[in-house]
Amino acid sequence: MPRSFLVKKHINSAKKPNYSELESPPVFITPHIYKGLPLPLIPHPEILSPAAYSPITVWTTSNLPLSPLPSDLSPVSGYPSSLSDASSKDHSGSESPRTEAEKFQCSLCSKSYSTYSGLLKHKQLHCDAQTRKSFSCKYCEKEYVSLGALKMHIRTHTLPCVCKICGKAFSRPWLLQGHIRTHTGEKPFSCPHCNRAFADRSNLRAHLQTHSDVKKYQCKNCSKTFSRMSLLHKHEESGCCVAH
DNA sequence: CTGGGGAGGGGGCCC
DNA sequence: CGGGCCCCCTCCCCA
């Protein structure tokens, strides 16, 4: 399931919410180490042009055979928080069968949830909403089935979180915090295999793939594995698959 | 050209 | 309902 499944396109009867209530005031994260540093002139997020928005690209690689991570990649003691149980985390995008506690099933799409609140949220966000509501973004053509999803999306246009060092703006506070690490040099995520450290958990995860002989992304023709989907895509574009 | 690191984006889940 | 955190993903750059 695509990650952007909440996005509805080509729907004409879009409901326009009150945007003045949706946009958040700017957020500044100011570590104490910034005190005394000159602050750049920060453009008001509201003047950002919608043209600056880059729409998502649709990945067309189909049927990626994702093999599970080798067991030797399991984190060791001292590893950053929940990276260890990432594979077991229940994501709505996962289609893996569940063997227990799926007592609440959506009557529209048959998706099952272990809790009633989970089912309720699913119906509010997806199934029921798809038949009733559509919230469209005033900055771009995207439409969402819930107001919350639209609010989150609008932040990608208004960029209310501004770095006080360089003035760069972000849609969410944690994105700004990750950016601030590029200024401070903080790298809280360490590789248990080579002691290399990273400022971003995702980058550590990608790095962990480099320690594995059998990597996560595999070419379905030559069985060669790659640490990243982008590398697999490059490999496929280079002609491996068309040669078969 | 390939592989890997850095940086960032977006949607989902949990509390 | 919103914030925080999560994961997955992409793009760019460099060795």
TrEMBL record:
Query: Bias regions of kind Basic and acidic residues — which residues?
Result: 87-98
Its predominant location is nucleus
Recorded source organism is: Monopterus albus
Q: Disordered: where is this region? A: 77-98
| Pfam families named among the record's database cross-references | zf-C2H2 (PF00096)
The family note in this entry says: Belongs to the snail C2H2-type zinc-finger protein family.
Q: What is this protein called?
A: Zinc finger protein SNAI2
Which superkingdom?
Answer: Eukaryota
